[in-house]
Structure formats: structure tokens, C-alpha cells
Design a protein that fits this description.
The chain has 12 helices and no strands. The chain has about 300 residues and is an all-alpha fold.
Length: about 300
């Protein structure tokens, strides 16, 4: 069955690209530090190191920030600006590293090359950024239409059946989420093996492949999403209940949390690799590496889906 063979092949691909997953984690870890440490320094200067530790030892306490008065408002204001900037950088970084991961998964090489990872990441950065931007805008439109609009109608008291409408909207959005992920992944997987096509051509290929091979593709994505949901459930059950009381316990909690982040990135890369394997199973013949493809092979790959 193509679904399970794609999952198996995808797992093999992501194990081969595990160093790329670690590079991805390290880049995002550095980005997180650039946001967390300025906030920590600001709180320490306002509270004093020992006091902020005591107040937050039992969890997040909003009164900590309320007690700071205008100083707290200034800290939160600057932190909000930093958060927005970090989000934009993370958005671009996501496009960069996903280009690298998809690129090395389309290579018939025996091992991972960091140089090749960064080369394909830089080469496909702008098309991947455009693909990510277009599909994010499209998904946000459905998110507003299916969730926020019914919620706003419910709050304003309009509509007798607002509860049923909200439920229907949430279910429809849950159904559409794997579709958007499939379009994004098929688009990026095909672009990784086709240097001479535009981002919009890649999105067109992603749409045609998603709906042309809908049943198997959708079930594959649902299985991959369920695995990530199980990990998220485990994190939600374990991490909030962990109350470190010593410096060693805090360090251990940091290590465990970062291992969970790496595992989440591994599962995300597994999704990339499995969708890539599924796409290649539709084409029967594995596409050539980007630098070896010709314009004729690109056109043939776009126009045909050989069973």
C-alpha cells in the first residue's frame, strides 16, 4: 500500500537527514534566545533576580507584571515589538530550513552534507517564502471565515443557531487543514526537484496533485498529523505538572523540553519526507537532481502524473 510504503520511505529519508533536523533546531533555538534573554534581563533589573524567581516559581503570575506599574508596561510594550519581529524572522527562517530539508530529501546521495543543505536552502529560499506566504494568507482567510466570524456573531448575540454554526466551522477547518498542508508540501517537494519553475507553478502542481490523488494523500497527512497531536498531548500532560525546585531540576527541564522540540521537528521533517516519497511513487521514476534536470523534464513532470 502506497501510504505505508511512503511512511516507511519517509522515515528512512528523515533519518538520513537527521543532521538537517538538528541544524533546524539550532537555528530556531538561537532565535528563541534572542527573544527570551532581553526579557529576562529586563525583569531581573526591575525585580531583582531572586524576587522574580520566587514569584514565578509556582507558575506564570500576571500580578508579577501588574506590580511593576509603568515599568512593567514598558517592558511588555518592548517585548511585544520584539515578539512581532521574532515572528517575522521565524516565518522567513521556516521557509529557509524547509527549502534545505526538502532539497536534501530529493537527492539520491548516501549521506548528509551541510554544505548541500545550505546551498539548496539559499537557492530555493524566495520561492519557498512565496509559497508559504500565499498559502498562509489563504489558510488565514478560511480561519477568519470559519471560526472568527461565527464567534463574533455568537458574542454579539446574533443568530439562533450560532453554536451549531461554530461547530460546523471548526469541523470544516479541521477537514481543510490537511488539504492546505498537502498543497504546501507537494508544492515544495516538486519545487525542490525543479529549478526552472516558479513558485506559482509549484503551487499549481501542489493543487493538482492533492486533488488528483486525494484519497491516499489525505489519509497519509491525517496519520502524520495524529502522530504530532499525540506528541503535543504528551507535552501538555507532562510539562505543566513539572515544577523544578532546584537549579539542577531547572536544567533537566530545559534539556527535556529541547529534546521534545527536536522530536517535534523530526516528526515535521518526517511529514516532508513522506509526502515527497508519496509524490515520487505517483511519478514512478524518481526525478533527477535539480542541477541535472532539463526544461523538457520539468515540463513533462508538471503535465503528467503516471500511475
Amino acid at each position: 500500500m502506497k501510504i505505508f510504503s511512503s511512511l516507511r520511505k519517509g522515515f528512512e529519508l528523515v533519518c538520513r537527514a537527521r543532521t538537517g533536523v538538528l541544524i533546524t533546531w539550532f537555528l530556531f533555538f538561537l532565535l528563541t534566545l534572542s527573544l527570551v534573554y532581553p526579557l529576562r534581563s529586563a525583569l531581573n533589573s526591575a525585580f531583582g533576580g531572586s524576587m522574580i524567581t520566587e514569584r514565578l516559581a509556582e507558575g506564570l503570575d500576571i500580578e508579577v507584571f501588574a506590580d511593576l506599574g509603568t515599568t512593567g508596561m514598558g517592558i511588555l510594550s518592548s517585548y511585544t515589538g520584539g515578539l512581532i519581529f521574532t515572528f517575522l524572522v521565524a516565518f522567513m527562517l521556516n521557509a529557509f530550513v524547509s527549502a534545505g530539508l526538502f532539497g536534501i530529501m530529493r537527492k539520491d546521495t548516501g549521506g548528509f552534507s551541510a554544505r548541500e543543505f545550505f546551498r539548496v536552502a539559499a537557492g530555493n529560499f524566495l520561492p519557498y517564502l512565496l509559497i508559504l506566504f500565499v498559502l498562509t494568507i489563504a489558510y488565514s482567510f478560511f480561519l477568519i471565515l470559519l471560526l472568527l466570524v461565527p464567534l463574533g456573531a455568537s458574542v454579539s448575540g446574533n443568530g439562533e443557531y450560532s453554536g451549531a454554526i461554530r461547530l460546523a466551522g471548526a469541523l470544516l477547518l479541521a477537514f481543510l487543514t490537511p488539504v492546505f498542508l498537502l498543497v504546501a508540501d507537494y508544492s515544495r517537494a516538486w519545487k525542490a526537484g525543479s529549478d526552472n519553475v516558479s513558485a506559482f507553478e509549484a503551487i499549481g502542481y501542489g493543487l493538482s496533485t492533492t486533488f488528483g490523488k486525494f484519497g491516499r494523500s489525505y489519509l497519509l497527512m491525517v496519520l502524520l498529523i495524529l502522530v504530532q497531536i499525540l506528541l503535543l498531548y504528551a507535552v501538555v500532560m507532562i510539562m505543566p505538572a513539572w515544577r523544578p525546585a532546584t537549579g539542577g531540576a531547572v536544567f533537566l527541564m530545559l534539556v527535556v523540553s529541547q529534546l521534545l522540540v527536536i522530536l517535534r521537528l523530526f516528526l515535521k521533517a518526517w511529514r516532508y519526507a513522506s509526502v515527497t516519497a508519496m509524490m515520487e511513487s505517483f511519478q514512478k521514476v524518481r526525478p533527477e537532481a535539480p542541477e541535472e534536470q532539463t526544461a523538457e523534464s520539468v515540463g513533462a513532470g508538471f503535465g503528467q502524473h503516471v500511475e
